[in-house]
């Protein structure tokens, strides 16, 4: 494999500089020819919220008609006592999807701790996408058991399936579909400052990495800066240190060292400019929950609020929350995590409406995998397909897209123990988001390599 100078630069550590410095590696010094492919008028943003550990979405989109509910409760009888009544049918929040007739009399509900998202669903600003997960091509139980159809590698492995969700390949993949979406927009001239095209609140994420863009990291209070620059009242010392960290006096002829020095200089300028824009922002009045995810969503809301100052028209964001690997004590732990997710997304959507971009920002969930319908005592084990939520003013909401497998074992999408074989691939889940974002067919084919294997009409195609 040929290693380009740009790819070598991507692997260089930034030393005392913040992780955000790496955003500009390989971007600042290179000119790119516009592709003129993606449609990039107006502003649009995608926001991925990743539920790390494998969220049990059997416990998010719950059966509600009496027969299905009784089956579900019987299968999970060992866990029900730990919920302290919150999974009693009388406590569930019934959903009224406009496509209820698609499910032959079956009904669905959400848990009481997700009242905010339930309200968004009922108002038409949210939708479920059922039984979604990594696939190479369509697959059912008999094909799975016979091994006649290829399946993603390293199924049920946390790291590999997180990578496969992000990049259609297990750990070691280079580019995520969020980064590829941003690539197409950048090459079509969407963003004057491409460094702000993909932004993460949790680290240097594969999902946001493209060939032309790298994730820019922010914290809950803005971009990281070099703390020592604020430690001296003497302006001469501060200026000297700033010149040192920005490598403004660097004169070496080594190409790689020159690149790193130039990036160091630009990163200091970018971080300071970002934080100055946040500091000048009229505070958003929407109240965010005082939680880890709530703080991340507030930081993303602030980033969107300064979009004009950043000179961007297309952005992809990534936030994450852990704690979903519920092999044990699920009834005690999961409701609190679901409450945090619901409250944070609900506040974020309200903030987007406050900013006047409620129709221009689409938020969606993702996770390593779902979990088994079968309980292992007081928890559940690694699964595959899972149900996800898409939120935004542009969403054709109050619908459940795709097929919700029954709360029983042995059906056509049951790999075993209620471990769901997905009926909607990650690529199909992502496709309508990419089209809404402005991508062309060729852009989508490059970003979603398995999409062409799914020739039947996409069940999610009209969600946006």
Automatic annotation (TrEMBL):
This is Tat pathway signal protein. PANTHER family: BLL7424 PROTEIN, DUF1501 DOMAIN-CONTAINING PROTEIN. InterPro entries: DUF1501, TAT_signal.
